[in-house]
Amino acid sequence: MTQKEMRTNNIANGKLLERIDQALQECAADIDARTQILAQRVVDVKIKLVPKDTFVEVQWQVSSSLPKDAPVKTIAFVEDGKLVSEVNKGAREKPKLASIDGKKRAAGE
Question: pTM for this structure?
Answer without folding.
Answer: 0.63
